UniProtKB/TrEMBL annotation, chain A:
Species of origin: Dawidia soli
Coiled coil: none
Chain ranges of the 4Fe-4S ferredoxin-type domain: 149-179
Name of the protein described by the UniProt record: Succinate dehydrogenase/fumarate reductase iron-sulfur subunit
Gene Ontology biological-process entries: respiratory electron transport chain; tricarboxylic acid cycle
UniProtKB/TrEMBL annotation, chain B:
Main subcellular location: membrane
Cellular localisation: Cell membrane
Reactions mediated catalytically: a quinone + succinate = fumarate + a quinol
Annotated organism of origin: Dawidia soli
Origin superkingdom: Bacteria
EC number: 1.3.5.1
Name of the protein in its database record: succinate dehydrogenase
Keywords assigned: Cell membrane, Electron transport, FAD, Flavoprotein, Membrane, Oxidoreductase, Transport
Membrane topology: Peripheral membrane protein
Cofactor: FAD
The keyword Disulfide bond appears for this protein: no
Length: 256, 641
């Protein structure tokens, strides 16, 4: 196959970027999208041109490190991660436009690499159960109905890639944040900190500069792991309930 | 130097309990006066950093990805073992211990393995408490499955994403400590050297991968949790960034490297399709429970999966079932892998390249119905189709062995300390618990055992012997010298401006390792490989082309530094494989086989851990032996006939 690539090149966070066009003559349909870029990069190095920087690690669709906005869609035309996308999805002679994730909260680091540490900070705000190592009950002492465990697992499958943010016209991180809030709200282990967690994670999400949710559903449509919009509904409920009985509100009410 | 395992005396089942009582403790109020560096945030590193932070130590944690959640552990699919015996099917701590020792072909330390089996039960409890959504039965109890041919069902799992869920559990515990200010996290940071002061590990040198800045960090102890080195083969199931650099730098600073030649090759991976291939994808071992492995009896070059049905039943060779009637398709990983290779070497391999065998589900689908097979393996079938374009419900899969795990690693004593005082190695980065071959679902167990339940005790024992608050400055000459060397190395790499790309040279190394130090090894082949690697090293340092600068994100430079270390490690693996003229576990020396071609151990000569000491650039490494003493188990020759 032969393809034309229009790739976003940007030296660093402070410089202005631009598209650059590359003719790629050596594409096989068995290649993954990232392997196609590897081949391009090796050819660039041989020609003395700097290769294109992009994030990736597992190349199995699970680490969430790969990104790329391909022909106007995060992770390209299929509902998989970019590393699992294969060139047989494209037509010989096609032009493919490759950009980084675009969102205020995900600044570009270089070329196609962006900074997604805002996601980590949302998790640090409350995406955990406060238990120390040791001193926990036997695993079977906390029975969990299969249905509940399965539902929690559906939410827990989020890989933190950020496609939901990239897909959203408001660059909202609701799908990502709600996945963790849902997982822990569903499980008995998460009950003790349920309200506090919802409040803190939502507050951090807002502080990072992610946009609001206007229910377009673009995130769900592009999420490679099938994280469902019902999680956002659940998060909204959790958040609403939490603010009603917020620790802060109570503290004020008590006059303390 | 005599290697001391420091395994406690006394009955096997009491060693760890006694040891925990005997270790020195750091007074709770003093813990905050000690700094601990944790390199790596996979299962081993994240669990260690979180647990030490909870205890009150000041932890600095490092990883090269943009988030600790992305460590290679995330990719583990199958499950994690634990001796819970929830199924009442005869499992016990002793049985898990015994299976691990036997599976490791009697090349692991008894005391360590028993401890691993003991704490396995605590791991499951810990993960459940964190909210890890393990699979459940309808009654709400935890579900188990049998894995890798084990006789009991002791494997816990979360769909096909067990590693992901366990890592996210450890990551959540880590996040809590980051929020509490007890752990400071450095992402996109690559450790490039360990710094010794007065013979003790007192810090590291790292490169900030975004700015390129070289920085030092000091501490009272350094924990390397940096994973395995399977990428020395270029193609493996490991994540692209997995590397040996941290361990190798430590090795050059005095940490002995244990059993480097022990590599695990996984039989069921998606075959290579061409030179563009960048990594290999594992298809879970569980597929061998229902899939039948075969090749045509007579060579059919280029046979495609969609034409497999044209081969009549009588013309197929179900070679595993034929050669190993009692275990059939469920023989251990090394046996299944080697036999696939033999079929392809005979010219009976299938597919475009001839380096593949069929894994056929037609009989299983006929027997159980498509729905049952889909329920069990649906996600794997989809993944296979996504990658290859073939539909495994309609035609057999094609599979071929691939490098998967490295049992070798930094030598550590019972406390997980390397031969450098204050320098520890945890998880896949150490050599410890799996002997010459690892059982399925035991790597996750080991990583978490080391991080949650072993290191919090053993590092305390070491720190208690140091003066509290005795902090040191990174302005010391030892740090400056290490930084200088790192900077010089980078400058040198950038100045070569040769003709070959880093990937190209890495691929060359991979070909050498796979051909001569892979599934099957011979004296002549290994000697040849040694020469080829030495030549490759020269070529690398004179002909590699690394573009870009040092003070920016430079992924080519990152790769180049890793490949330079892989080349040196490759040579040591070959030395180790040459030295070990027996076959054991994943290490198969053709010269040491039974008349019918099965592996032949030589217990009287090789019942030891080979621990290699670095002596200088291009100098031969010195072999030290830790004799393995079996007090409890009586070694027998494995047989799967
Ligand atoms: C596809 C696949 C499936 C598997 N399935 C299973 C399974 O089902 N069950 C099982 O038990 N095992 C399985 N394994 C094995 C298991 O996943 C690994 O052995 C284990 O996760 C290793 O964990 P770790 O914490 O030691 O290292 P890793 O998870 O590899 O983490 C290494 C860490 O070190 C960091 N690091 C490395 N080098 C540096 C450096 N120089 N500077 C800074 N940071 C560095 C990385 O950033 C990372 O955080 C599987 C492996 C693969 C490849
Ligand atoms: S919700 Fe989906 S798209 Fe968003 S980060 Fe998680 S996996 Fe990626
Ligand atoms: S590289 Fe890991 S999800 Fe794509």
């Amino acid at each position: 196959m032969k393809i034309t690539l229009k790739i976003w090149r940007q030296k660093n966070n402070t410089s202005k970027g631009a598209f650059k066009v590359y003719q790629h003559e050596h594409v096989s349909e068995d290649m993954s999208f990232l392997e196609m870029l590897d081949v391009l990069n090796n050819e660039l190095v041989v020609k003395g041109e700097e290769p294109v920087a992009f994030d990736h690690d597992c190349r199995e669709g699970i680490c969430g490190m790969c990104s790329l906005y391909i022909n106007g869609r995060p992770h390209g035309p299929q509902q998989t991660t970019t590393c699992q996308l294969h060139m047989r999805t494209f037509k010989d002679g096609e032009t493919i436009v490759v950009e980084p994730w675009r969102a205020k909260a995900f600044p570009v680091v270089k070329d196609l690499v962006v900074d997604r540490t805002a996601f980590d900070r949302i998790q640090q705000a409350g995406g955990y159960v406060s238990v120390n190592t040791g001193g926990v009950p036997d695993g079977n002492a906390i029975p969990i109905p299969k249905k509940v465990a399965d539902e929690a697992m559906d939410a827990a499958q989020c890989i933190g890639c950020g496609a939901c943010v990239a897909a959203c016209k408001n660059a909202s991180a609701m799908l990502f944040t709600s996945a963790k809030i849902s997982q822990l709200a569903l499980l008995p282990q998460g009950q003790a900190e349920r309200k506090e967690r919802a409040e803190k994670m939502v507050a951090q999400m807002d502080a990072e500069g992610f946009g609001a949710c206007t229910n377009t559903g673009a995130c769900e449509a592009e999420c490679p792991k099938g994280i469902s919009l019902t999680n956002i509904a659940r998060m909204n409920r959790e958040y609403f309930m939490a603010t009603l009985t917020s620790y802060e509100v109570q503290a004020k009410g008590d006059g303390a | 130097m005599k290697l001391e395992s420091k395994a406690p005396q006394g009955p096997l089942g009491e060693k760890w309990t006694k040891h925990k009582f005997n270790v020195k403790l750091v007074n709770p109020a003093n813990k905050r006066k000690y700094d601990v560096i944790v390199v790596g945030t996979g299962l081993a590193g994240a669990s260690a950093a979180a647990s030490l932070g909870e205890l009150g130590y000041n932890v600095k944690a490092f990883c090269f990805q943009d988030s600790p959640r992305r460590a290679h552990s995330i990719a583990a699919q199958g499950g994690i073992n634990a001796a819970k015996n929830y199924q009442n099917d005869g499992d016990s701590v002793y049985r898990l211990f015994y299976d691990t020792i036997k599976g490791g072909d009697y090349r692991a330390r008894e005391a360590n393995v028993h401890r691993l089996a003991e704490v396995s039960v605590n791991i499951i409890d810990q993960c459940v408490a964190q909210g890890v959504p393990f699979a459940r039965e309808y009654g709400g109890t935890l579900a188990n499955r049998s894995f890798g041919g084990a006789q009991v069902s002791r494997t816990f799992y979360a769909r096909g994403q067990t590693g992901q869920q366990l890592l996210l559990g450890a990551y959540s515990a880590l996040n809590r400590q980051i929020a509490n200010g007890k752990v400071k996290m450095y992402t996109r940071s690559e450790m490039l050297d360990v710094v010794l002061v007065d013979g003790k590990a007192r810090g590291i040198v790292v490169r900030n991968l975004i700015t390129g800045k070289i920085e030092s960090h000091s501490a009272h102890a350094v924990l390397l949790c940096t994973g395995g080195y399977g990428n020395v083969f270029f193609l493996s199931t490991n994540a692209k960034g997995s590397n040996v650099t941290a361990a190798w730098r430590a090795h050059k600073k005095g940490a002995f490297f244990g059993n480097p030649c022990y590599t695990q090759i996984h039989p069921t991976c998606i075959p290579v399709t061409g030179d563009h291939q960048s990594k290999l994808t594992l298809m879970s071992e569980s597929l061998r429970n229902d899939g039948r492995v075969w090749v045509p009896k007579v060579a059919k070059p280029g046979l495609r999966a969609k034409d497999a049905a044209s081969i009549a039943e009588d013309d197929r060779d179900y070679f595993l079932e034929r050669k190993y009637p009692s275990f059939g398709n469920l023989v251990p990983r090394d046996v299944a892998s080697r036999n696939a290779k033999y079929m392809c070497d005979e010219g009976r391999g299938v597919g475009q390249t001839g380096r593949a065998v069929f894994l056929d589900f037609a009989d299983a689908i006929k027997r159980d119905g498509r729905n049952v097979i889909e329920a069990k393996y649906g996600n794997l079938f989809d993944m296979y189709k996504q990658i290859t374009g073939d539909n495994p419900y309609e035609m057999p899969m094609m599979i071929y062995p691939a490098v998967h795990y490295t049992m070798g690693g930094l030598w550590v004593d019972y406390n997980l300390m390397t031969t450098v005082p204050g320098l520890y190695a945890l998880g896949e980065a150490n050599f410890s618990d799996h002997g010459a071959n690892r059982l399925g679902a035991s790597a996750l167990m080991q990583g978490l055992a080391d991080g949650y339940f072993v290191i919090p005790y053993t590092v305390g024992d070491y720190l208690a012997g140091m003066k509290a608050g005795e902090k040191i400055s990174t302005d010391l000459p030892e740090f400056k010298e290490a930084e200088k060397q790192v900077n010089e190395r980078i400058a040198r790499l950038l100045s070569i401006k040769g003709k070959k790309t880093v990937d190209h040279l890495h691929r060359d190394l991979g070909h050498i390792m796979w051909e001569y130090c892979g599934m099957s090894r011979t004296d002549a082949g290994l000697r040849k490989a040694k020469g080829l690697i030495q030549d490759l090293k020269k070529e690398f340092w004179s002909n590699v082309n690394v573009l870009g600068g040092s003070s920016e994100l430079n992924q080519e430079l990152e790769k180049a530094m890793r490949v330079a270390d892989f080349i040196e490690l490759g040579e040591l693996m070959v030395d180790d494989a040459l030295n070990r003229t027996e076959s054991c576990g994943g290490h198969f020396r053709e010269e040491s086989s039974t008349p019918d071609g099965e592996a032949q151990r030589k217990d009287d000569e090789f019942m030891y851990v080979a621990a290699w000491q670095y002596t200088g650039e291009d100098q031969p490494e010195v072999l030290h032996k830790e004799e393995l003493i079996y007090e409890t188990v009586k070694p027998t020759q494995r047989s799967y006939k």
